[in-house]
Amino acid sequence: MRRTRRMFPLVVIACFVFIAAFVYADDSIFRLRPDKQFTQPIPDLPLTAEQVETLKAQKPVCLLVPTRGELKAGFMRVILPVDPVTIWWITQDIEHFHLNDPDYPKTGSLSVKRRSLMPYVFDGAMCVIDGRRHLYQLVVAPFVAPRVYSLARYPDRDGFPWESAWKGAKELVCSEKRDPAFEKYFKKAVQPPHNNGCWRVQPVPERFRTKPEDALMTYIQYYVDTHPGGNIAALTPIVNKSTSVGMPNIHENLLYQGLRWEEHLRKYHAPEELERYRAEVRAFRKAMGFSEQP
């Protein structure tokens, strides 16, 4: 009887790994869908020859794109030497966007201790409403009052490019889970009337590849269109500057986190999530015509 009890956890783990491998044996999520409809539109901006070379060098191409009035949306494109599955998992790990890590690049926050995946984010929390995940964020950037956001998330992996979109919620949801340590910032914070955007994640397109293995890397498009609230005329230069500085920081942070993602999973997630992640990576490599093991 004791032996049976000891064997039970091992059987459960083995079954989970088998199920995960079975689920991702269907590679339909890895197929390219050029006609895909997206939640968040992104301007169709052709790349210059210089920008193409910048991308091939794995450096970000960052732009400020005109939207309403004087405000501009942030638009970044970059290639990362990390597979799309890993980058997708990072973009979905919204519970941990605000985590401190001294190894992240300095993001211009008010304290060097506040180095997190998303620049200027001091606090965050996740909650589920009507089956959809929402993200609460407290953003403390230089020279402006703090901002608080509630963002409804819209993930879509029905073929590449995968899209992780968000839309600003009218009500400040999830804020009840905020960290009391940052209450002084929360009390001064403004809730912007508008914040939409997305990540788009896919393998590197052929035009940017120099060798077959490049197909295993990730081509990312990051787009954020926000209205900060308050005096637009006074805030526009600050918002635009923060966006242009923040996007390269996001690139550096993604690269840092992508190269240590298993370490993060072991530290902050359940063991079965690590196994599920590994199964997805193996399935992606197989779907792309490579061995399941790197």
Secondary-structure map with pairings?
Layout: H1 2-23, H2 49-56, E1 61-66, E2 72-80, H3 84-92, E3 121-129, E4 132-139, E5 147-156, E6 162-168, H4 183-188, E7 194-203, E8 218-227, H5 232-258, H6 261-268, H7 271-287
Helix pairs in contact: 1-7, 3-7
Sketch the major β-sheet: 8 strands, antiparallel
Number of helices: 7
The CATH H-level superfamily is: START domain
Structural class: alpha+beta
Mean pLDDT: 86
How would you summarize this macromolecular structure in one to three sentences?
The chain is 33% helix and 23% strand. The protein is an alpha+beta fold. An eight-stranded antiparallel sheet has the order 1-2-8-7-6-5-4-3.
Characterise the protein shown here.
With 294 residues, the chain is α+β, with helices and mostly antiparallel strands. Helices cover 33% and strands 23% of the residues. It has 7 helices and 8 strands. It has helices at residues 2-23, 49-56, 84-92, 183-188, 232-258, 261-268, 271-287, and strands at 61-66, 72-80, 121-129, 132-139, 147-156, 162-168, 194-203, 218-227. Helix 3 packs antiparallel against helix 7 (271-287). The longest helix has 27 residues, at 232-258. The radius of gyration is 20 Å and the shape is globular.
